[in-house]
Amino acid sequence: MSAVAESEGELAGYVAGRFDRPRSGEGALVARLEGVFVARQLRRRGTGSRLCREFVSWARAKGASQITVAVAFGNQAASSLYRNLGFVARTLILRLDV
């Protein structure tokens, strides 16, 4: 799924996501919010929230019982956006560069 927001005929932002295939034996249908982008000059005006809510509505209508999103460590703006929409931290992924 993807959706765009426009402002004065210009691209203001977009959201994209998809469904993950359920693991064998799991009944939950999980949607993955892949990304949200809002043009820098239009941020902090509710565009990102509106796009995310549109994705949530789409996922719910398609039968999702969960939605996941990954946020880069230190990306406070994205983390705040998702937390304000009701997302909660469930997993910490660690990486070792070798």
Write the layout of secondary structure elements.
Elements: E1 2-7, E2 10-20, E3 30-38, H1 47-61, E4 66-69, H2 76-84
Parallel strand pairs: 3-4
Antiparallel strand pairs: 1-2, 2-3
Would you kindly provide a written description of the structure presented here, covering whatever features stand out?
The chain has helices spanning 47-61, 76-84; strands at 2-7, 10-20, 30-38, 66-69. The radius of gyration is 15 Å and the shape is globular. 18% of the residues are buried. The protein has one domain: Gcn5-related N-acetyltransferase (GNAT) (Aminopeptidase), CATH 3.40.630.30. The longest helix is centred in the middle third of the chain and has 15 residues, at 47-61. The protein has 98 residues and is an alpha+beta fold.
What's the story with the biggest beta sheet?
4 strands, mixed
Nearest-integer average pLDDT: 92
The fraction of residues in strands falls at 25-35%
Number of strands: 4
Question: Number of helical segments?
Answer: 2
Look at the structure and give the CATH class: Alpha Beta
Straight-line N-to-C gap: 35 Å
CATH architecture: 3-Layer(aba) Sandwich
Write a brief caption for the model:
The chain has about 100 residues and is α+β, with helices and mostly antiparallel strands.
Features:
alpha+beta; Aminopeptidase; globular
